[in-house]
Specification:
mainly beta; 2 domains; twelve-stranded antiparallel sheet; nine-stranded antiparallel sheet; 40% strand; disordered N terminus
Length: 402
């Protein structure tokens, strides 16, 4: 009886392990099994390159960034539309924001200064090459305030702003306008990540004032109406590696050749493997680390840098946006539950040439949310196991393609 129980348990575990490696439905199993024994091939990428796109839009990010780490410098802009009028007597003016995490080596306080901004800006300001923060701020102590952000991973920061800020913002007769604040660092060894206006913990401007001729005290709280991080990358990318980065965008392209597969291949499942170059990576552990694989129609040899053509059909078929995650240490690959669907609905279309394949295009899911640089080994890596590859499990259709 005990032997029978162990036998049943072993069979159940075997079935579960098989479903994990290739999670097909019953109808898929019945259809594919009629083609005979499954085959398995490993295709290595035959060409690669990377393109540095540069600065990205940070206006819709849930985080604001301030500080410096490795080759990155960050600072952020804030604007509050609902400010008290010039007909009130200001008792205090406070800026409040919340630190939600840190990025970099070590956790130390960051010192900085809040400056009044002198020129208009919008959410795309990080991508505007003509908007220079250094020439667009008022350096006068009359409108500036020094501050310190504590070392904590999470903390609420309160900065007592100069009361004179409101009078300047409201003094339209002198040509002044409310263009908000720039918060810049003066000393930093890492980057603080702060809740933006997209969050319920976003920055607030708290003002306490009295109406002229009225002794009543009023407390107003205004949430930031617009904000954006300014990200500068002062370094360079090592040409010995390939890069997918966020905050300062870089994209990687890999070319695979399907000609070695039999003409009547029927794909069962597929998996990608991309190995991380740990030396040249700047990994943000607060980042989702999700990297998308997309198809590019343009032939790899004709790829016009920085121009590329992404397959437009990914907008209507989710499997043309394939998410890779770091499943094992220093390796990007597909989740088990996606391998069958990606193979049968995405790779099968490329093999059948229903969709042209020029290359695969890798990019971060959210390029404007964080800073993270994922370096990859390429096709010329001296270690074969580090080269980009695709593992395909498939059947042979003896009659025709599906």
């Amino acid at each position: 009886m005990i032997k029978k129980i162990f036998l049943i348990l072993a069979i159940v575990l075997f079935i579960i392990s098989c479903s994990d490696s290739n999670p097909l439905t019953d109808s898929q199993k019945n259809r594919l099994s009629s083609y005979g024994e499954i085959r398995k091939d490993t295709l290595f990428a035959v060409a690669d390159t990377f393109i540095v796109s540069g600065k990205v839009n940070t206006g819709n990010s849930p985080k604001l960034l301030i500080g410096a780490f490795k080759s990155f410098e960050t600072r952020f802009l804030l604007k509050f539309n609902n400010i008290p009028p010039d007909s009130v007597l200001i008792d205090s003016l406070k800026l409040i924001f919340n630190v939600i995490s840190n990025f970099g080596n070590g956790i130390n306080p960051i010192t900085g200064t809040a400056y009044m901004v002198l020129q208009e800006w919008d959410e795309n300001v990080n991508t505007d090459p003509n908007w220079d923060y250094a020439s667009n701020i008022d350096l006068s102590p009359f409108t500036s305030k020094n501050f310190e952000i504590p070392a904590n991973d999470s903390a609420q920061v309160i900065i007592n702003l100069p009361d004179s800020l409101l009078s300047v913002w409201n003094d339209t007769t002198s040509g002044n306008r409310n263009f908000g604040l720039l918060l810049n660092f003066t000393s930093a060894e890492h980057i603080k990540e702060i809740a933006s206006s997209e969050s319920v913990l976003g920055p607030r401007l708290v003002s306490i004032y009295r109406n002229v001729g009225n002794d009543s005290t009023i407390r107003d709280t205004s949430s930031a109406s617009i904000d954006a991080s300014l990200i500068d990358f002062l370094g360079s990318f090592n040409n010995d590696s390939l890069y997918v980065s966020a905050g300062y965008a870089a994209h990687t392209f890999f070319k695979f050749n399907f000609d070695s597969l039999p003409e009547n291949t029927i794909v069962s499942s597929v998996n990608f493997f991309f190995e991380q170059d740990t030396i040249n990576s700047i990994i943000n552990t607060n980042h989702s680390q999700t990297i998308y694989v997309r198809n590019v129609i343009t032939d790899f040899s004709e790829l016009k840098i920085p121009y590329f053509e992404i397959d437009s059909s990914f907008t209507s078929n989710i499997f043309y946006i394939v998410p890779l995650t770091e499943k094992n240490n220093n390796q990007l690959s597909l989740d088990n539950i996606r391998r069958a669907e990606v193979g049968q609905y995405f790779i099968q279309s490329l093999i059948n040439k229903e969709i042209n394949h020029g290359s695969f295009y890798l990019q971060y899911q959210n390029e404007g949310y964080d800073i993270s640089v994922y370096a990859l080994h390429g096709v010329d890596s001296p270690q074969i196991e580090q080269r980009p590859r695709m593992v395909i499990e498939y059947f042979i259709n003896p009659e025709t393609r599906i």
